[in-house]
């Protein structure tokens, strides 16, 4: 696992100690600008703003992802699917099968602390 950026202690806790930020506390929970959500550690493009939706869970939620890998997570006495950056291995969050119908049916539940955002310029 390579780290390319100096992370805050909170970002490091989420990305490399597999922590979770408190619900409704993340800067990207209610963020809906057009652009791309990137890995805070290595800058890989992970989630398009076009796939973001309000799940009401308190974490940024997306119905599709790019450049991620999934691994089984048996922590907390339950089986979940962990989402990691495919490039650097940073922990991003988890994916669940309760996403929007008519899309992928998935809900990528992601920590804001694991993300950066690059705005997309709107022409017009």
Automatic annotation (TrEMBL):
- Gene Ontology cellular component? cytoplasm
Segments forming domain MsrB = 1-120
Q: Which residues form a coiled coil?
A: none
Necessary cofactors: Zn(2+)
User: What is its EC class?
Assistant: oxidoreductase
Query: Which SUPFAM superfamilies does the record associate with it?
Result: Mss4-like
Keywords attached to this Swiss-Prot or TrEMBL record, sorted alphabetically, are: Metal-binding, Oxidoreductase, Zinc
Q: Which reaction does it catalyse?
A: L-methionyl-[protein] + [thioredoxin]-disulfide + H2O = L-methionyl-(R)-S-oxide-[protein] + [thioredoxin]-dithiol
Q: Does the keyword RNA-binding apply?
A: no
Would you identify the family this protein belongs to, as annotated?
Answer: Belongs to the MsrB Met sulfoxide reductase family.
> What name does the UniProt record give this protein?
peptide-methionine (R)-S-oxide reductase
Originating species: Candidatus Gottesmanbacteria bacterium RIFCSPLOWO2_01_FULL_48_11
Phylogenetic lineage: Bacteria, Candidatus Gottesmaniibacteriota
């Amino acid at each position: 696992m390579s780290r390319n950026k100096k992370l805050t202690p909170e970002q490091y806790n989420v990305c490399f100690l597999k922590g979770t930020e408190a619900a409704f506390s993340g800067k990207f929970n209610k963020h809906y600008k057009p652009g791309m959500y990137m890995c805070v550690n290595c800058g890989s493009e992970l989630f398009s703003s076009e796939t973001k939706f309000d799940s009401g869970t308190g974490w940024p939620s997306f119905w599709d992802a790019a450049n991620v890998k999934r691994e089984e997570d048996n922590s907390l006495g339950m089986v979940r699917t962990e989402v990691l950056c495919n490039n650097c291995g940073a922990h991003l969050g988890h994916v669940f099968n309760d996403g929007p119908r008519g899309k992928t049916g998935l809900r990528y539940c992601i920590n804001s602390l694991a993300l950066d955002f690059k705005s997309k310029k709107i022409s017009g």
